[in-house]
Amino acid sequence: MLLVIDWALLLEKFLLIAVIVTIALVFAMYSTYAERKVAAWLQDRRGPNRAGPFGILQPFADAVKLFSKEDIIPSHANKVLFVMGPGLAMMAALMTSAVIPWGTSLDIKGRIVSLQIADLNIAILYVFGVVALGVYGVMIGGWASNNKFSLLSALRGASQNISYELAMGLSIIALVMVSGSLSLREIVTQQQDHVWNIVKQPLGFLIFIVCAFAECNRTPFDLPEAENELNFGYHQEYSSMKLGFYLFAEYINMYISSAIMATLYFGGYDIPFINEASMTPSWWLSLLGFACLMGKTIFFVFVFMWVRWTIPRFRYDQLMNLGWKSLIPLALVNMVVTGAAILLWQQYHH
Amino acid sequence: MQALTNRGKQVSRKPMNIWERMYLPSIFKGMAITFSHLFKKRPTINYPEKTRPFSPVFRGLHVLNRDEEGRERCTACGLCAVACPAEAITMEGAERLPGEENLFREEKYAAKYEINMLRCIFCGLCEEACPKDAIYLSETFTPANFTRKSFIYGKSDLLIPDPNTDKEAYDKAAAGRVRVAVPFNPSSGNIDGH
Q1: ipTM tops the 0.85 cut
Q2: Closest CA to A108 of A26, A16, A24
Q3: Around Cβ B149, how many Cβ atoms within 10 Å?
Q4: I need a labelling partner for A44 at 20 to 30 A (CA). Which of A4, A140, A243, B46 fits?
Q5: CA-CA distances (angstroms) from residue A268 to A68, A286, A297?
């Protein structure tokens, strides 16, 4: 038989997907709590502290609230698309987690289990493809609601995502030039052996993080859901868990883009100040690597929140100006400079 | 234009220089400011667990007073109800029967005494109107509740514990607010009983 199905591999991957998705969901759940806590701390308040000790049961209370609310579908809405929107947003948010290397590998009874769902050799392209899909959740939700505010916000969201994807892509090209690979695993391994990419690409990282804020529709680029202009943006007509899905998707997006930032620029699961190559691989080392990646991710999620509660929202023309007239030229310059630097480096070394 | 006060501040309309147009320095400055607030003391008091200390003149929940023998002072004269601008107080008087002298100070007493805490504005006029020093405003405020009915406080909610049988609870409820009344003496000129 030509096609032999490796059932053990299937099971392994299935379990890995389940674990990673669960972690993402729990992380998103607690991001909502963290967001409120961070907001409170930055504003000298206390934040939610009634549900359980320090309010740690707050996300569950919120979930119960969302589930028990009436699920409204507006009478003039396109029902199929209306239901599809939140699902699509959620799916696109979760799909990116497939190519992120969450750790090295675990040795389970002689079987080496890689802590990455799929080690694609074009992982970065995949990430971009899926991130671009994310805009459909916003678009479809805004369109299907049959509400002018939702539609306006969907248009804003779509044009914003497209504009900032360009600059993001250009900043990533420079990174790919430095590392010479599109595989995230390969990029992390290189950073383990040498320095983190942030040292080689500081400007690229800056452009990337700004674009990541825009892609996640986070302040200062949260124009699609600008409360005081568009009421609530594309999820205005949504209620109950459909709204919950949109809000959740935003937090998962934040989590995933933080993980990608950590992977691309801050060494991924690389443990700082330790040379992993000199140590024998073990469970502890792998889990410590995973913990390091999570720590870096949590830091970036905190930065997302920190920025949200510091900077006011951009005006729409300012947003477009920044994207097209500043970030894209900067990213192009960064690319050219990186190319020149690589050429010089190669000449110097040969 | 002539400035009305010298407090005005001239807004700079200078075009931004390259450093300012990068936005990033000022963004980092702002982030440093918000970050510093992480370590600041929070002014919020966790209310049900902790309460704010009130000043001694705070006017809170009412207390129906007893005399030193533990007898109710209120004679249901109705002056507090008349004085009440919010019309929150209602009462019903009753005659003291023989054998109840240890319960009620005088031969008339309030069989029913109700204050609607939703109407009450805690002005303290009832306290001022009372000739018998029977009603005082304490330092606690009305706790939250789920029904309107539960805000109508009856005698069981208002009456201070008996100082002879439960001194501790009496002192706690009195909290230095409830004065031991001196009988009214016109010749000494003390209008309010002191």
Answers
A1: no
A2: A16
A3: 7
A4: A243
A5: 39, 12, 9
**Beta-strand runs (E) in chain B:** 62-64, 89-95, 108-116, 135-137, 152-153
The CA-to-CA distance between both ends of chain B, in Å, stands at 63
Q: What percent of chain A has pLDDT over 90?
A: 7
Suggest the residue from A37, A38, A42 to mutate for an interface test with chain B (most B CBs closer than 10 A). A42
B46 touches chain A (CB under 8 A): yes
Is residue B17 within 8 angstroms of chain A, CB to CB? no
Residues A49, B46: C-beta atoms closer than 8 Å: yes
Residue in A44, A309, A311 nearest the CB of B40: A44
Question: Measuring CA to CA, which residue among B170, B83, B176, B79 is closest to residue B124?
Answer: B83
Radius of gyration, alpha carbons of chain A: 21
- Total residue length of chain B: 194
Cβ contacts of residue A177 below 8 Å, gap of 6+?
Answer: A335, A338, A339, A342
Q: Name the DSSP class of A30.
A: H
Cβ pair A309, A39 in contact under 8 A: yes
Burial zone of A187 (CB within 10 Å; 0-12 exposed, 13-18 middle, 19+ buried): buried
- Which residues on chain B are in Cβ contact (under 8 Å) with A47? none
- Tell which of A54, A309, A311, A325 to mutate to test the B interface (max B CBs under 10 Å): A311
Using only C-alpha atoms, chain B has a radius of gyration, in whole angstroms, of: 28
Torsion of Cα atoms, A283 then A285 then A291 then A296, to 10°: -150
Q: Write down the pLDDT at residue A326.
A: 87
Q: How far apart are CA B9 and CA B107, in angstroms?
A: 73
Q: Residues A297, A259: contact at Cβ < 8 Å?
A: yes
Helix (H) or strand (E) holding A79: helix A79-95
Residues of B in contact with A308 (CB under 8 A): none
Give how far Cα A67 sits from Cα of A2, A64, A245, B98, B120, Å. 48, 5, 11, 65, 40
Distance from CA of B29 to the nearest CA of A (A): 10
**Would the CB atoms of B34 and A309 count as touching at under 8 Å?**
yes
A272-289 residue pLDDT tens? 777 766 777 777 888 888
Query: Structure pTM?
Result: 0.78
Which residues in chain B touch residue A37, judged by CB atoms under 8 angstroms apart? none
Rounded to 5°, angle at Cα B12 from B8 and B14: 165
- Residue B68: the pLDDT is 81
Predicted confidence band at B193 (pLDDT cuts at 50, 70, 90)?
very low
Q: Which amino acid is at A310?
A: T
Q: Do A43 and B37 touch (CB under 8 A)?
A: yes
Nearest Cα residue to A210 out of A309, A314, A88: A314
Residue ranges in A96-201 assigned as alpha helix (H): 123-144, 148-179, 184-193, 197-200
